[in-house]
């Protein structure tokens, strides 16, 4: 109707039905062409998005596989820690009789290189402290030493005088007067702590002596009794005979150690038995075996349980927080990670001393703060800064065992005084009841 009215106004006739159908077919072809072009563009866009997603996944997978080169345990030592990803640490220990030279702990940095220097285990020179007393000469050995004692001294460190007692009697019998004769008293089987003396006569004089570790029993020159070295020489000039307990034996003594220790090679000290390394423990597979002085502990590491917050265990001793929802403020304020460390120390450690270090490989914010959490830990510990990125846990007072202490060190990261991350390190310290 509109078209007809327009044509009538200008004095023209309306187009025919055939012309209108042709125009509509052309419009339909144009729409179909545009639709095909639009669908082709959508397919091309989907293909590019898919390619970007695959490329991102490959980069992420490659990044997740990136790790620092494997570190070998030092000769005569061992390595603790198997995770080689950035931010993780590897610890080194030396076997008994060796001391560590180099970095005790090395951390995998973001550049996929290790901090510190590769350590070596150097044999300890036990003779450096001059353990052989009374003129004895020291020979260094692996995890021990031996003493060659001067004349008149005996014992592992030449601390015990060699008692050579004798008694003299005069025989004026005419049969032996003026003549040289040698006789000995008959030996009899006596108790282990009592022995017959050895006597001889020379020109009418009788000399009686005892073996090392025995002495003449008063006026009875024919009998030698054992010397109790544990009583007589226990606190001599060279120090205590035994670090732990002294047991008197016929003609000598021996040292003993409490359960969980072996007597050291010098015969005086006590050496801890590593039940974890020697598999002398009953820890199940879901628990960590922690060697302590005189024993061991089976520890189960569990991630924190916080409402509306979840953690995943990224290593046997580390839990990391899963991403938080945007509107969950409580989750964003929860610790980003919680690490668990265990230490074994002897009783009555001297203080102050640095017990542990906490650091970050890469800072996102502009400030790091360190603090000790919990009331019990504050009594024995504090934190101090060693550099911009490292805090040190400081022992303030000596620890008396047996005891188990737990202390938490918090490292907070801030950007313009606003908290952007919290990292908790939980340290459990097993204190032995002994000072060795």
Automatic annotation (TrEMBL):
It comes from the Eukaryota. This is Uncharacterized protein. The lineage of its organism: Eukaryota, Metazoa, Chordata, Craniata, Vertebrata.
